[in-house]
Amino acid sequence: MAVAGFSLIAIVVFVAILTGLWTGVVGLRQAGRNGAWWTMLTAMVGITLGIVAYGVFMWILIDQSSRGTSAPNMNFLPVMIMMIPASLLLFSIGFAMHGLKTTRVQERLNELEQLTGAMSEEIDRLREGGPNA
Question: What does the radius of gyration of the chain's CA atoms come to, in whole angstroms?
């Protein structure tokens, strides 16, 4: 029974984390569906499937143990266990790609703001001094 309580708590925590991650990925969709977004989306699908598989496996395991029957076939367990960390690594790669792109965009925005300021000063100078200024 302690395993069931721990499993339920783990699933609730995973669902809370998933909600935040899915919200972020869906929100980033508006910024453009580039490679970073597709990488994070693929990772989120993998994480979600891994957590669902974990929940189903634990439910079957608890159901089988409560009936006193033998444990279910666990051949897919290593794949299920590795799906979540591999997907988290993939999400981290996508997040890093997105962060680097955001940094480049911010630097370009700063350059354009400086250029706009310089052009505004030049226009003001020309207005005050005429064409010969």
Answer: 26
pLDDT, position 66: 77
Integer CA distances (angstroms), 128 to 33, 103, 114, 123, 124, in order = 47, 38, 21, 9, 6
d(CA 24, CA 10): 21
Query: What are the tokens at 71?
Result: 């444990």
Interval 45-74: pLDDT, tens: 998 888 888 777 777 777 777 777 776 677
Residue type, 87: S
Distance of CA 10 to CAs 26, 102, 103, 105, Å? 24, 33, 35, 38
The Cα–Cα gap between 113 and 116 comes to: 5
C-alpha angle 10-15-16 in degrees, rounded to nearest 5: 100
The CA-to-CA distance between both ends of the chain, in Å, stands at 86
* Distance between CA atoms of residues 79 and 126, nearest Å: 70
Structural tokens at position 74: 């666990």
pTM: 0.69
Q: Among all chains, which residue has been given the structure tokens 């051949």? A: 75
